[in-house]
Amino acid sequence: MKLKTKIHFLSTLMMLILLILSNLGIYFTFDRTQHKTEYSQLLGSAKELTVALNKMTDEEEAEIILRAYVPPNGALRVVGEEGKDILSVQSMEGFDKKFPIPKKDEQYTLVPFNGYEALSIAIPTIWPTEEVVQLEVTQVLTDLKANLKLLRVVMIGITLFAMIPIVISSMTLGRIVTQPIEKLIHAMTASRKSGTFQQIAVPEQGKDELAQMGQTFNELMIQLEQNYRKQEKFVSDASHELKTPITVIDSYARLLERRGMDKPELTEEALTAIRNETKRMKEMIEQMLDLARNNEPASYVFEETDLRILVDDAARMITSAYGRAVHVKGPDQLKLSTDGTHLKQLLIILLDNARKYSEQNIDVEVELLNQYVAVRIRDYGKGIPEKDIPFLFDRFYRVGEDRNRKTGGTGLGLAIANEISIGLGTKLDIESEEGKGTVVTIWLQKKPDSQ
Ligand code: ADP
User: Fold this and answer.
1) Distance CA 280, CA 409 (A)
2) How far is the centre of ligand 1, averaged over its atoms, from the C-alpha of 407 (Å)?
3) Could you report the per-residue pLDDT of 109-151, keeping only the tens digit for each?
4) HSE of 286 in the Cβ direction (CA atoms, 13 Å)?
5) Is the pTM of this model over 0.70?
6) Where are the chain's structural domains?
7) For ligand 1, atom 13: residue with the closest CA
8) Transmembrane segments in this chain: where (predicted)?
């Protein structure tokens, strides 16, 4: 069963049950109240009659009084000791065949009488002959039957009439709830079939859950599309980047094949070029793997780490590998919660860039601020043109192709640095002035109790 039909069916059924229950409640309350009213009226007139009878001394006079008090559509009977029928009068036919006998232990007795209900009561009284008799009064409830019938008709009519707006509103409700879901299903099916990322129209001001669902779906689609485009771009950039060294290797290999035997100096040149390109390719592949690994949040393990030790280690590595002086300034000890392995990798990437793109010393400044610890890696090299700064974290982005060919860069270093920074929950800032140098700042969050 479709959701729309379910909502429609269930809400209509619920409302119908509610209406029927409330109508039944009203009907039975009315029925009970009416019986009570009839009973009190009958009792009232029976009591009046007993008062009048008590004053009588003559049986004939008593009979006249009884006739005056017989209820319309009813009967009166005087029963003596041992159930002896003393007198009975009636204003309706049929009582001579079967006279309703009130039960002693009940307030009043209801018995079926000629298709109606007859309400009977019995009260004791003194008969003019001084005998204690039972006065039985019966009223046939003809009006009540008509009233109840009318009430039933009115209630059925009202229920049927009320069902019209109920059915309309439950259909509208079903449509309101299912329309956005149908739109979603439609968009998802279309996206699956066409391989695109289709969004759905959502009311901008919509605040309810259905509007939120639509907005979240659209956001999800945007994110999926962005990720898809990123992956697509990465694969195309990576294959493009790998194509250059492979082409170089291939052309040198062919050259060796053709003329390598005759010209030994060519062989050396070709082998050097092949080795260089292979090294470059290996580096690039390692960096690509790094990029994939650093993307996984699970690979980050946070524990209390001394930042100063990390910075000193990274600086020492650069100095011993490339013979470049790195000066570290700042507190001798600075403990904070971070992933030491990833943070060191980040420092090495930034220090390596500072080394590659400058000739002079490199400074690292560790500064303790209120909520943050700033680690600044400062070099005095060529700097980066302002227009390139926004794209530095893009994969394979390089400033000035020639310059980087010389340094052997891949354009992946800062992209990896950015991924690590996200994984560590830090922020990277790059400030640079062409001809003067570059400062890259890592903003680490300091825990209140760390230091
Ligand atoms: P690469 O492997 O080419 O160094 P990166 O992603 O690390 O790739 O850097 C991207 C670009 O940013 C490089 O092309 C380089 O020109 C520039 N760059 C990065 N760091 C510095 C720096 N400290 N000084 C000058 N230029 C830099």
Assistant:
1) 8
2) 10
3) 998 888 899 999 999 999 988 889 999 999 999 999 999 999 9
4) 7
5) no
6) 3-150, 209-294, 300-445
7) 398
8) 7-30, 150-173
